[in-house]
Amino acid sequence: MGTGTENKVNRETGGGDSAVSAIQAALRIMVFLAIFVGILLPVSYMVRTNGDVKDRFAGFYAEKKDSLDVVIIGSSPVFPYYAAPKLWGETGIAMYPLSTNVQRPAAMRYLAQEAAKSQSPALYIFEMRMFTMEEAGLMENMAYTRGVTDNLRYSPQRIRTIRGLVPEDDAEGRLSYYFDIMKYHTNWKMLALPSEWANMFYHHSHPLKGYTFRDEVGPQPQPVCGGAKGVLAMPKEQEAYLRELLAYLQENRQEALFIASPYGESLEEQQMFNYMADIVEESGYAFLNMNDYYDEIGIVFEEDFADYGSHTNAVGAEKCTDFLKNYLTARYALPDHRGDVSYDSWDKAYELWKTRQDEAARTIRERIANGEYAEIAEED
Fold this sequence. Notes:
The protein is of the alpha/beta class and 380 residues long. It is built from 15 helices and 5 strands. It has helices spanning 2-47, 52-62, 84-91, 108-116, 135-139, 143-149, 156-165, 171-178, 181-184, 194-197, 236-251, 267-282, 294-297, 314-331, 344-370; strands at residues 70-74, 95-99, 123-127, 256-260, 286-289.
């Protein structure tokens, strides 16, 4: 009897020890995974290729929760055209760009959803130039997709964005999007840069609130098709993405403005903007094609562009920002935060912008006088 009882106790004790050991092993695994992820995430952020886009997105994440009045989304016409510090200094409106080079229209809805995680802007602005492009051409270079996905912080929304932008049949490629350190793992030299340590949590204030100065000059004649009538259907895939974006905005009762920035457009592109305007306005939103207002903007194509009609320099940006400012203040009830101490960083950005604007304008005037024009680069 005694032996049987002892064996029973030993079995029960052994079972208890096994359960404790299993719990301890599970805890060790959890601690290891927590440490691993805690190291992996900042290292992943740091080894991503540095540059204006990375700094712009890290700056967005550094903005205080629900502090932005306007979020402007789009391709490269956004960040050199519209100076958020100037808009702030003259109106007290806090606007920030979520902009990447050659941004696919398919990304816009996902970026609006990403912005909504930390901000509640009264207005989204969407720049529409890329909606004239064929999707097949944009898909040929997936760097256009990575410009968005590789500049988002890790989150479920980032996963949804990758699923929406990367083809389902590219399972192997998708993995390198989910874990972009697979692409950038050779960039270990980034860990030696003090600026990248500031980006270890992808949360680093941008001194100019996402704006990029350009002081080059690349002249071209003013397009003759600005303001032209007639419509031409936009690419089918882009129309579908536009309608999806409009449905998302309507469902969330979100105010939005759609714009086309002034540039060396073709007649076909102008007529596609007319086509887009019809779709947007039928959905209850405004469409502002600045190519219809060259004189009102005061844009001078021979002087105000950095690269031959594709993107403005600092002088052209000041004019475009003025025009957008007047449009916004006339049509939207946006608050004036000037004097609010919680927006001190915006006051500093405005002072920095004024100093650098004077320098850039002086450089631009000198280059025009000396006939020093920019080298022709690939348009984005």
